Amino acid sequence: MQLDLFREIIVDNFAGGGGASSGIEMATGLNVDIAINHDPAAIAMHKANHPDTEHYCESVWDVDPQKVVQGRKVALCWLSPDCKHFSKAKGGKPVSKKIKGLAWVALRWAATVQPRVIILENVEEFKTWGPIKDGKPDPNRKGYTFKSFVHQFRKHGYEIEWKELKACDYGAPTTRKRLFLIARCDGRSIEWPEPTHGDPSEVNVQLGLKKPYRTAGEIIDWSIPAPSIFNRKIPLKENSLIRIARGLKKYVIESDNPYIVEDKACFVQHYYTHQGKETRANSLHRPLATIPTANRFGLVTAFLAKHYGGNYKGAGIGIDEPLHTITMRDHHALVTAFLIKYYGQGVGQSLHEALHTIPTKDRFGLITVAGEQYRITDIGMRMLQPHELFKAQGFPDNYIIDRDHEGNKYPKTQQVARCGNSVPPPFAEALVRSNLPELCVEKYEYKAVVGS
Predict the structure, then answer these.
(1) Which of 93, 152, 363, 391 sits most deeply, having the most CB atoms within 10 A of its CB?
(2) Which domain holds residue 419?
(3) Closest CA relative to residue 437, chosen from 75, 52, 115
């Protein structure tokens, strides 16, 4: 391979499955030049999507920056070191000094090849980085190591700033929040991208100066059925039923504006009859199919339940807001309520008392849609699928997530893990466009194609 020693290059440390690399590519129109990660599965996914990149499947500490750069100047060095030992989700597990110190590799790159711009991404708690005492962070020295880390950058001639950003502010349909540190040594000022999206109630959104937040409803593949919660071979656990009940109460029964599933690739409805499972579906924009004796046709409304462990007491999320942070083991589940016109029959319980836990195939709940009363006849639930989660994270529609560069298939668990560990590409795109505009191409809009 002939090297262009005059062209600046881009390096992605801790490259994972390619979230940051994808965002950089959206901004520059080019694959990153070098990607480094110790995980063979992550590198295999990265190779499938970034075939022109030079890949190093080894520890970031085993890679010599001077050797891999080969005399080329580095415009950008991106780093997303393992964050689990800073995250508030970690709990009380002992801290690994080896993993907690991975961020120091940024100083190695600064000292050896001096990239013009260095961007480091981590959880908000990274600012509390401090010494370890008895296997856990010393509460009396929070932030001590972080301050030293920042000071070392300045000693190497870098200006450095840090800020917390939310992915939904830059066009990803997820509320994922991350801390970003930007360091640069080329004498130019550090620039923070202006949010392009906002809450629909914001004045700037209403004036058209920002776009409204993208929503969970955009990433749902409505062609995938949500099986009834009442006829499962393995019954749902009581806590799961309680969470579903809370969500139904908040987002369906008591909502003034429930999210109605319109004709998005014809959402399939499953009904269980005495003869077994019966499938019926009908578009909201087509003539109603033949009406059987038992009227099972109506509307479908939906929300997202969050099946976290422990004592999670929330009601989940509405479909008309961004998806919450995606983890390595995703907990988001789509819940659908099937509705039929209400003509005065009993609904199972009073609407003036707390919604009951769902024990059997009971019928309950009244909902008013466009002035018409409906009652809930069935409830479906399914976990979100990997391709939906990647869309929520802001990946392009054509991103390969189910196989590696050699065609080997990834199980769903690995796909979800890659997604949960990834950087939402819109983060990287926005930061690169703000700080390295001379490397960037004209911004283009891509639209999600649900179910692709």
Answers:
(1) 391
(2) 9-208+408-439
(3) 75
Q: Are 249 and 258 in contact (CB under 8 A)?
A: no
Q: Find the mean pLDDT for residues 164-183.
A: 96
For 213-246, letters b (16+ CB in 10 Å) and e give bbbbbbbbbbebebebbbeeeeebeeebbbbbbb
d(CA 403, CA 7): 32
**pLDDT-derived band of residue 289, with 50, 70 and 90 as boundaries?**
very low
Residue 253 is given by DSSP the state: I
Please say if the pLDDT value at position 85 is more than 80.
no
Residues 251, 180 share a domain: no
- Do 79 and 163 lie in one domain? The reply is yes
Which run of H or E residues covers position 161?
strand 159-166
Residue 446 lies in a domain: no
The predicted pLDDT at position 11 comes to 98
Task: Tell me what pLDDT residue 4 has.
Answer: 59
Range 290-302 burial, b when 16+ CB lie within 10 A, else e: eeeeeebbbbbbb
* Of 120, 117, 192, 184, nearest in space to 157 by CA: 184
Answer yes or no: do 229 and 204 share one domain. no
Contact 198, 204 (CB under 8 A): yes
58 touches 105 (CB < 8 A): no
Name the percent of the chain lying above pLDDT 70.
77
Is a pLDDT exceeding 90 seen at residue 404?
no
